[in-house]
Write a structure and sequence with these properties.
histone deacetylase binding, methyltransferase, 29 helices, single chain, Protein-lysine N-methyltransferase SMYD4, 3-stranded antiparallel sheet, cytoplasm, Serine Threonine Protein Phosphatase 5, Tetratricopeptide repeat, binds zinc ion, mainly alpha
Amino acid sequence: MDLPVDEWKSYVFQKWSLLPKSIQVTISTAETLSDIFLHSSLLLQPEDEMFLQNLSRGYLVEKDPNAPLFYREEGNKKFQQKDYMGATVLYSKMCLKDIMRAQMHGYPERLQPKMMLRKAECLVTLGRRQEASQTISDLESSFSAKPTLAAAQFQILQTNLCRLKMKAQEKESLTETFPAALTKALEDMDLKGENGQVPSASSSVSLRTDPLRGRYLVATKDILPGELLVKEDAFVSVLHPGEMPPLRHLESKWDTRVTNGDLYCHRCLDHTLATVPCDGCSYAKYCSHDCMQQAWDLYHSVECSLGGLLLTLGVFCHIALRSTLVARFEDASKVIRKLCSEIRNRDTCSPERETLVQTLTCDLGGESENKGKMLEPPVPGCDLNGKYESNYNAVFHLLPHTGNHSPEHRFLCALSVSALCRRLEAAGCYKPAAAVPPGSGSELDVWGVAMLKHVLQLQCNAQAITTIQHTGSKENSVTNSRQVRLATGIFPVISLLNHSCSPNTSVSFISNVATVRASQQIGKGQEILHCYGPHQSRMRAAERQQKLRSQYFFDCSCAACQNEKHSAATGPRWEAFCCRSCGALMQGDDVLICGSTSCMESVSRDHLISRLQDLQQQVGMARKLLRNDKPERAIQLLLGCQRDAQSFLSGEHSLVGEMEDDLAQAYAALGDWQKSATHLQKSLQVVEVRHGPSSVEMGHELFKLAQLFFNGFAIPEALNTIQKAEKVLMVHYGPWNDEIQELQKMKSCLLDLPPIPAGPSVQGPNVFFQ
Ligand SMILES: [Zn+2]
Ligand SMILES: [Zn+2]
Ligand SMILES: [Zn+2]
Ligand SMILES: [Zn+2]
């Protein structure tokens, strides 16, 4: 998804392998990014562009005049099934203008208001007040003045609108208006420019640089867990298309599946059900007309016609293009213009040119080359006053590690960017300057070089923007949550943080704003560290090292990696096997021997692995039963699995914890809150061993447990667990997290309850989870 699609990748790699050796050498040994780009660009043939164009056509990005009719029918089906969410999304896949367009293709006009009304009704039912009123006002403005509408029809429309508005008002008191809450959340987190050097960071940190660590942030005073350290808007972010195979893999002409693109704003990443689609394409949808306009002015006017190509070339190319488009509006666009004049005046030598050449080449020789130049500000990416801001200048100075990428990879990136440049030129997005002397690089080439630099930078500097998605069936009032990747963005300040496999911070997102909080106490003078992905609770040291070396080009020597080097061969406890006779942990590599000195048990690892795989398969079947509303059978199967697990897995094995979690889900589905809570508490113990007592994973488990106690009316336990969950989640997310808000609602509900009459209560206050 980040890189181009496989077909294009293998096409380019084949092209590379067939190049004459001498050309391969020229490109491999090219010293500057502009040389790599210009040499590769010359090799891009019309047939290559044709191949790419055919791939791009596989994506459904153009407006189809027949689509509204189709989506209306599919939406109606969902509406009848009371799947209001699905119906809204399908109704939203078209906008009023689409419907107007469809009219010319025989779309019955009398059905238009009906469909829009249904969409508004769905939104009201779902409690999406803001989006509902937006849809209602769209309806009013578009149809009230329509002379073609018969009087009787007009009246029906008006009556329905009134009814809907009343319904919306009734709901209003129950639901919080989302954008208002969001605005407040973001205001509450303001850093108020207290850090003069790095305005997106708090005054508790300061920017340093040294030859070993490069640029990094350090604590200037003692920091407490939960303290906000960085709050930064993405310089640019690109929404992930989600699992959306191109058209040729689909039987149906239109996709009725709900993807990220249907649920989140293309520009600000806000969650929204009533998206406003772009007039020109079918893949960009926004939360509001404002967002659509802003995106159009900043970048979408160029991107709109390139949808299929950008999906084919991958997210990194898309971010590279968008970064340069956004930069046009910044002072830092001078960087690009300066570069341009530099390439044009290849033969003239000026101090300015020196700096610029350096900016483009600095990475080939490593960072050290960058030092000692008088024209460079003290820390790369800072302005002349030493201020490091989240702007294009900072983005431009992120390291592309050009020399570390393989020649094939550089060729792939360069050729992809060249193809993008040709399309930009063909689409009239770029107009060549009048007086470019022949033989010298054009402004378009400079644009290409800048984009190539961004694509290469992104491998080490792209930040995944994640969100917590809640899963769980309608009947099951305990929601599971999982972290999903929503978008990829560039955050120049967060990019300053070095990696640790056991970091002292936690990153979370609201829309496309990232916040970094201390996840533990950080002493004055300590470095602020962030995990690039390979976390000690998710991967073993060897796996982490391999990942960090191949993607980020360094060997990790963080505390966790140091400790693991010296620790015994048992591996982490959540992967450990235990002895079938005495229950002690097994040790060793290919043959495992019981860790207890008085026991002689031994077994081959292969045998244990195959037992583990069988067990995983069984658990998978149980989950399927659970999803298909067969909790009793799931419980039977899971209890059998548990007995099996006891004979060879450690009690803290992650699969043992997952089974407890599944059992908790199954009992919750049956309404047996007590049994459910007992199992969830056991799962909690495993999560604690693996991720630590104040980890975000622990927070999510505690949240689930709080829901269970709440549903089961176990008031003291519920209040106690709510408090624990709040404490943990607050450290990672701050007060405006959805789960914390939910916990607070639960708490106030419990505290407001009248004294409970004696006798068991059958119905818990389930209202919150429906
Ligand atoms: Zn938006
Ligand atoms: Zn568009
Ligand atoms: Zn490490
Ligand atoms: Zn033993």
